[in-house]
TrEMBL record:
The lineage of its organism: Bacteria, Pseudomonadati, Pseudomonadota, Betaproteobacteria, Burkholderiales. Coiled coil: none annotated. It comes from Curvibacter microcysteis. It comes from the Bacteria. The record marks N97, K184, R187, R301, R304 as: Interacts with tRNA. This is tRNA-dihydrouridine(20/20a) synthase. Pfam families: Dus (PF01207).
């Protein structure tokens, strides 16, 4: 039986921050499917916020709550400034990326390479906590970097950063190889070691520990929740978003999500039409996020093909939806 703190943890289920994927349009779709799951932005670098268009990076839809802002950076003063911005914009959490392995991120001295500098991360976390008034500051990280595979490495990292005041750690249960693997390979080749994350929860019972990496089904999530406080799902939630349809009922003791896939699609069409009218956003840049909505159903491929057809971009989303359902209902040609 799950104890009360785990049952009520805001981190019980979440969708991972994913570059080029979890923008505000994607998060709007996900919120239609699950009312309670915590949603994360794509990583936003401190440089982009300090020197770029703050509104473009931080604007989101009110319906997205609870929504967390993930920051990438390593300079304490910059992180503090950006955490304060995130709180001012109304985000429910500020998360520091210590898990991304890409070489582009490493050149900026943040992401997974920060795991080798726990003291620097602790300084950044403390500065962020000092800068905000109401929101938690959390850290997402790996279990190790390169060939460092000892439990003691990740234990000491969490120990040091928690002393600075961080109470929530989201742990991707793979090492990050900083050289020799692409970001995609880094999500697949280093072996998953869930037992290390379970051990972290045992050693730090006072902290919230959520697990990430390779988890694709509600049954797998339930099994992990016997050991940790939360589960973060990444690519599966994006490619097969309907996997979230029973999460509210299973993990939050809440009423089941009442919308059908067709209802979600229709609401996305209304949303896309509003975004086009208010911001001039082309509907196809938003529709790409729902191409997995009918995964596994008859006619799904033909439905996806219609929504992806560039020749239809002059039509309204509602007109494309009608065409997509006409196509999926017809038998595939022999």
């Amino acid at each position: 039986m799950h104890d009360s703190p785990r049952l009520t943890s805001p981190w019980r289920t979440s969708v991972a921050p994913m570059m080029d994927w979890t923008d505000r349009h994607c998060r709007y779709l996900h919120r239609l499917i699950s009312r309670h799951t915590l949603l994360y932005t794509e990583m936003v670098t401190t440089g982009a916020l300090i020197h770029g268009d703050v509104e473009r990076h931080l604007r989101y839809n009110a319906e997205e709550h609870p929504v967390a802002l993930q920051l990438g950076g390593s300079e304490a003063a910059d992180l503090a400034h950006c955490a304060r911005l995130g709180e001012q914009w109304g985000y429910d959490e500020i998360n520091l990326n210590c898990g991304c392995p890409s070489e582009r991120v490493q050149r900026g001295a943040f992401g997974a390479c920060l795991m080798a500098e726990a003291g620097l991360v602790a300084d950044g976390v403390k500065a962020m906590l000092d800068a905000v008034q109401r929101v938690p500051v959390t850290v997402k990280h790996r279990i190790g970097i390169d060939r460092i595979e000892s439990y003691e490495f990740v234990r000491d990292f969490i120990g040091t950063v928690s002393e600075a005041g961080c109470r929530v750690f989201i742990v991707h249960a793979r090492n990050a190889w900083l050289k020799g693997l692409s970001p995609k390979e880094n999500r697949e080749i280093p072996p998953l070691r869930y037992e290390l994350v379970h051990r972290l929860k045992q050693e730090f019972p006072q902290l919230t520990i959520a697990i990430n990496g390779g988890i694709t089904t509600s049954a797998q999530m339930q099994a992990q929740l016997d050991h940790v406080d939360g589960v973060m799902v990444g690519r599966e939630a994006y490619h097969n978003p309907w996997v979230m349809a029973d999460w509210d009922e299973l993990f939050y003791d809440s009423a089941a999500q009442s919308l059908s896939r067709e209802d979600v699609e229709a609401r996305m069409c209304d949303y896309m039409a509003r975004q086009m009218a208010e911001h001039g956003t082309p509907w196809h840049t938003m529709a790409r996020h729902m191409l997995g909505l009918r995964n596994g159903l008859p006619g799904a491929r033909r439905w996806r093909q219609v929504w992806s057809d560039h020749r239809l971009r002059h039509l309204s989303p509602q007109e494309v939806m009608v065409l997509a359902h006409q196509e999926r209902s017809e038998p595939l040609p022999v």
